[in-house]
Amino acid sequence: MKKLILFITICILTISDLFAQIDWAPYPGNPVIDENFDPSTPNISLLYAMDYKLKQMLEEGAENIYKRHKEMAEYTRNWALEKGFGLFAEEGYRSVTVTTVANTLEKDVGELNKALAEKGLVIANGYGKLANLTFRIGHMGDHTMDDLKELLAAIDEIWNL
């Protein structure tokens, strides 16, 4: 859902023809079942949001989306290395949608996020044992190169890099 920039309360799945063979027998609280039966209450507003986002994605095209994400990933990696940080993932295992930076400069990521929040920006700290040892910069979904440059410039300013 991150790549679609949608709330996580919606799920996209595919089902086989076997779904039609399910015996939708009445259950307590819903004794009447007919051809219009829906086993759940759909979140209509999220369906409209997904429709809107998918149209945007079709307009941009999968190749262009991948190219944009890849360019931002390379820009982020170069920034990290130029500033003296490391990259957590080895070559060949790096993502085009998020960069995990090794915090080799031992900066306080929690304090950085507080300062970034004042500017309307955010990054993700590392998980568990990697908290403050790594931080993650996303470059997927609606993010643009201008957004990324704004974020990295703010980090430069806050950390005096």
What does this structure look like?
The protein has helices at 44-60, 62-82, 109-118, 145-159, and strands spanning 86-87, 98-102, 124-125, 134-138. With 161 residues, the protein is α+β, with helices and mostly antiparallel strands. The chain has two domains: 2-60, no CATH class; 62-159, Alpha-Beta Complex (Aspartate Aminotransferase, domain 1), CATH 3.90.1150.10. It has a four-stranded antiparallel β-sheet, covered by helices on one side. Strand 3 and strand 4 (134-138) form a beta hairpin. The mean pLDDT is 85.
Shape: elongated
- Approximately how much helix is present in the residues? 25-40%
Number of domains: 2
* Count of separate DSSP helical elements: 4
- CATH class placement of the largest domain: Alpha Beta
End-to-end Cα distance: 33 Å
Rounded to an integer in angstroms, the radius of gyration calculated over CA atoms is 21 Å
CATH architecture of the largest domain: Alpha-Beta Complex
The topology string of helices and strands comes to HHEEHEEH
